[in-house]
């Protein structure tokens, strides 16, 4: 547990209020990040807001509701590449910074093998379908940058306050060690009435002020995804009742790189310094999905699906380093120190962390109403309780993380709505997907995510091609460090970040 304590306190003050694209070391935050997944699927279903709990006849059913496989009356193979484009805007200290990035990958691929009962054989059983698919359920590719000029405080204010408040010794916390080893801070002993000796931390670097401004910047880049390999079966009883089940093997990869830097005014003894952090997480998990769809009348289907909790085994690799570059005037302070070169570096790389994560179950209900052969509308409601996220560290000691989960997160209702209009061989689609705010304290930050989608398709007897465009928007906050009120050096700086992402999905499939 010592390494957890050191690292949690290191990450630029350990204060991150984030959304799914930007994360921190804190286990509770990672638990939420890996629990907020979409169902993904083909371009057809994504264009309709992923509202397909009551629909069938699409590869996406393997992930969302395997009962939908019972609608198939022939076999199919399909592939769906995806292109992602991010455009984010951050406001920090009255300065606005825009950032763009892009990523490409595979959204979905799979095959369904149908075993249809011949029409000339009587009976309620109409046959069944096996499905096998790869599906991307969460995409972490993103980039955010914020920057501004601070005349009230800087990162070293936070480090010194933390070190002195905790009577830190060298080696206690990476938060304190890195600045010390790069000559940004120093310590000396104080004798209190001849009885007690304790450390006091200080710095030769000028603090931020109107005459000594500090330019601050942070670059945050994330990458990776959560993918699901699924095997599923769906059956058809009399074209009225459909059932299905699937087994999902999950793969998790998440990389988060952050570079925080401060540049001093020209006359300072310090030119600049930067703090770099990289977190590389990989894991595997398993879950199950069960579902039914009923058709009480020809124009209406009703679906229910249950996704079991996903149990992940995770390996977390972490490294951090700090670099300071000094002006020649710094030799007046450190010139007698043989270790001082003017370009100072320090690096920490603790052992890997291994822990288990259990994400909450998901319960979906859906309705689909059909307008004969002219199209349909579909709506889903999903219930998820994020307070049921569970963490178990190999060496124990994650009770604080689980307590934070209970204190901060809540159960939510998510919504999905979509529709399709048909004219000849062409299809026109639109949808909306809303992931509700998982935080109990809704005044802290509304972390709800809205996705608007649209698309079209062309379908013939032997093949089809579909295109979908999805636009997602949500808000995030980044706090680089904390300034406590009694320090009298201005407020804690906060970066407000508006995240916008566009995803383009193309699906091509063949029937056989």
Structure characterization notes:
Mean pLDDT is 90; it is low at 1-24. The protein has 512 residues and is mainly beta. It has helices at 2-10, 27-35, 43-47, 61-64, 155-165, 174-181, 331-334, 399-408; strands spanning 16-17, 76-92, 95-116, 125-139, 142-150, 186-192, 196-202, 214-237, 241-264, 270-297, 300-307, 310-326, 343-348, 353-359, 362-370, 375-385, 390-393, 411-423, 426-435, 449-459, 463-478, 495-511. Strands 2-3-4-8-9-10-11-15-16-18-19-20-21-22 form a 14-stranded antiparallel barrel. A two-stranded antiparallel ribbon has the order 6-7. It has a single domain (2-511), classed as Beta Barrel (Porin).
Describe the SSE topology:
Blueprint: H1 2-10, E1 16-17, H2 27-35, H3 43-47, H4 61-64, E2 76-92, E3 95-116, E4 125-139, E5 142-150, H5 155-165, H6 174-181, E6 186-192, E7 196-202, E8 214-237, E9 241-264, E10 270-297, E11 300-307, E12 310-326, H7 331-334, E13 343-348, E14 353-359, E15 362-370, E16 375-385, E17 390-393, H8 399-408, E18 411-423, E19 426-435, E20 449-459, E21 463-478, E22 495-511
Antiparallel strand pairs: 1-21, 2-3, 2-22, 3-4, 4-8, 5-8, 6-7, 8-9, 9-10, 10-11, 10-12, 11-15, 12-13, 12-14, 14-17, 15-16, 16-18, 18-19, 19-20, 20-21, 21-22
Helix pairs in contact: 2-8
């Amino acid at each position: 547990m010592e390494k957890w304590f050191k690292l949690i306190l290191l990450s630029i003050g350990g204060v991150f209020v984030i959304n799914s694209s930007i994360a921190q070391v804190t286990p509770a935050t990672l638990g939420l990040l890996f629990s907020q997944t979409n169902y993904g699927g083909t371009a057809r279903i994504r264009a309709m807001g992923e509202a397909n709990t009551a629909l069938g006849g699409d590869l996406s059913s393997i992930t969302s509701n395997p009962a939908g496989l019972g609608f198939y009356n022939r076999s199919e193979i399909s592939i769906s590449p995806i292109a992602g484009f991010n455009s984010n805007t951050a406001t920090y200290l009255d300065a606005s910074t825009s950032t763009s990035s892009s990523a490409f990958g595979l959204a979905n691929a799979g095959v369904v093998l149908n075993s249809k009962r011949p029409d000339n054989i009587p009976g309620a059983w109409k046959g069944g379908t096996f499905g096998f698919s790869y599906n991307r359920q969460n995409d972490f590719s993103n980039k955010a940058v914020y920057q501004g000029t601070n005349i009230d405080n800087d990162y070293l204010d936070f480090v010194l306050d933390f070190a002195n408040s905790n009577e830190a010794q060298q080696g206690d916390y990476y938060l304190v060690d890195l600045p010390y080893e790069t000559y940004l801070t120093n310590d000396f002993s104080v004798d209190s009435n001849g009885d007690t000796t304790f450390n006091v931390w200080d710095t030769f670097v000028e603090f931020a002020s109107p005459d000594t401004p500090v330019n601050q910047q942070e670059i945050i880049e994330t990458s990776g995804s959560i993918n699901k390999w699924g095997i599923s079966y769906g059956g058809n009883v009399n074209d009225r009742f459909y059932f299905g089940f699937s087994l999902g093997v999950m793969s998790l990869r998440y990389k988060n790189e952050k570079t925080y830097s401060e540049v001093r005014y020209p006359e300072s003894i310090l030119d600049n310094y930067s703090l770099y952090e990289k977190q590389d997480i990989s894991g595997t998990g398993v879950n199950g999905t069960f579902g039914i769809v009923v058709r009480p009348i020809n124009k209406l289907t009703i679906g229910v699906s249950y996704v079991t909790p996903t149990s992940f085994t995770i390996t977390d690799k972490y490294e951090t380093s700090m670099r300071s570059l000094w002006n020649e005037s710094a030799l007046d302070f450190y010139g007698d120190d043989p270790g001082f070169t003017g370009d100072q570096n320090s690096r920490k790389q603790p052992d890997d962390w291994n822990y288990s994560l259990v994400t909450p179950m998901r319960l979906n209900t859906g309705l689909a109403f059909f307008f004969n052969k002219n199209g349909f509308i579909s709506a889903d409601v999903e219930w998820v309780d994020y307070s049921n996220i569970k963490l178990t560290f190999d060496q124990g000691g994650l009770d604080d993380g689980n307590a934070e989960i209970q204190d901060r997160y809540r159960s939510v209702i998510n919504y999905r709505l979509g529709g399709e209009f048909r004219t000849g061989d062409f299809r026109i689609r639109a949808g909306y997907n809303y992931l509700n705010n998982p935080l109990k304290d809704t005044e802290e930050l509304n972390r709800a995510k809205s996705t608007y989608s649209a698309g079209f398709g062309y379908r013939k007897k032997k093949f089809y091609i579909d295109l979908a465009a999805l636009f997602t928007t949500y808000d995030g906050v980044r706090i680089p460090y904390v300034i406590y009120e009694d320090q009298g050096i201005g407020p804690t700086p906060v970066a407000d970040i508006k995240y916008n992402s566009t995803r383009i999905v193309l699906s091509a499939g063949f029937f056989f």
